[in-house]
Amino acid sequence: MHPALAVCLVFCGCCSNVVFLELLVRQFPGCGNIVTFSQFLFIAVEGFIFEANFGRKRPAIPMRYYLIMVAMFFTVSVVNNYALNLNIAMPLHMIFRSGSLIASMALGIIILKKRYSLSKYTSIALVSMGIFTCTFMSAKQVASDSSLNEEDGLHVFLWWLLGIAALTFALLMSARMGIFQETLYKQFGKHSKEALFYNHALPLPGFILLAPNIYHHAVLFSQSEPFQIPVIGLTMPIMWFYLLMNVITQYVCIRGVFILTTECTSLTVTLVVTLRKFVSLIFSILYFRNPFTAWHWLGTAFVFVGTLMYTEVWNSLGPLLARWRKRPKAE
Where are the transmembrane segments (predicted)? Predict the structure, then answer.
């Protein structure tokens, strides 16, 4: 597949996925579990058919390692989604998750004894400053909500603090999972599509613990207003339509990233994913009218400039543009 098509899949799939997720959580903030379960189930079924060949294909990486990875992946996914139920706005959620570089570098230094250049430390300082700025301004907005009395305002603020703690935990756990995957790939080779299947199939029994919450939101979804799907004319509750589109776009997003990793360098993948997050953030702010001050914009700029600096994309753009100019013109 041409890299340009893979980039289109990433942008269309991932950006659309964020839109449908926000439509879901704005109506039912606690619906993260049913969203996660639906995504896991869809990708697991697809992987069971096309990757595992209905269970006949043996995994290249021993199952015990997948069980460890899956425990981390399941925890990160559930905690990230549950944070949306703790007064965490979607823009802050996206900005906070963009700080994965900080957690990866910190754990890389502690666990893998890595050392980095001055530019890397500078970029991480920018990302940290950006996240701190956005978090601090969001905290002021939550604490000064004029529609609440003092007691209710304190209660909301404490839940918000718990949400920040949940996002921080998920960020560190995600970075630890990345280091674990890195060591596995060095030992057994890269099997990203196999890992994608097992990361989504093995956690499915864990959703039994969340079954009451999933069933509760399934009932709420079924009671939502009917919606007629364009073109095919099928009518279904609108929340189920949003969930269906969220699952499909999540799959398109993941497949686009997977294709991109096989067609392009890791630097290009990081750049595309970073730009995608920025586009999603802008759309969320403008379309859903999420509160966003000049300080939030400054913090966002710090995060994305720091991320681009970390990938050293500036050093690569010159040769890339030079090769593009020298390419033969079509007759």
Answer: 37-54, 66-84, 90-112, 124-144, 156-175, 196-215, 227-245, 257-288, 294-317
pTM above 0.90, yes or no: no
* Tens digits of residue pLDDT in 161-178: 898 899 889 888 888 887
> For the segment 259-285, what is each residue's pLDDT rounded down to a tens digit?
776 666 555 666 677 677 777 777 777
244 or 148, greater pLDDT: 244
Q: Is the pLDDT of residue 312 over 80?
A: no
Question: Which residue in the block uniquely carries the two structure tokens 């996206």?
Answer: 94
DSSP state for residue 52 in the 8-state scheme: S
Burial of 312 (0-12, 13-18, 19+ CB in 10 A): middle
The CA distance from 51 to 55, in Å, is 9
Question: Rg for the chain (alpha carbons), in Å?
Answer: 21
Report the C-alpha gap between 106 and 165 in whole angstroms.
17
Q: Is 205 exposed, middle or buried (0-12, 13-18, 19+ CB in 10 A)?
A: exposed
Phi-psi region of 230 (alpha: psi -120 to 50; beta: other; left: phi over 0): beta
Q: What is the rounded CA–CA span in Å between residue 325 and residue 320? A: 9
Model confidence pLDDT, tens digit, residues 31-78: 888 999 999 999 999 999 998 888 889 898 899 998 998 888 888 888
Q: What phi and psi, each to the nearest 5 degrees, are found at residue 57? A: -90, 125
Q: What span, in angstroms and rounded, lies between the C-alpha atoms of 30 and 135?
A: 21
Cα–Cα distance between 79 and 167 in angstroms, integer? 7
Residues 33, 301: contact at Cβ < 8 Å?
Answer: no
DSSP H helices in the chain: 3-27, 32-50, 63-83, 90-97, 100-111, 118-143, 150-188, 192-201, 211-222, 238-263, 266-287, 294-310, 313-326
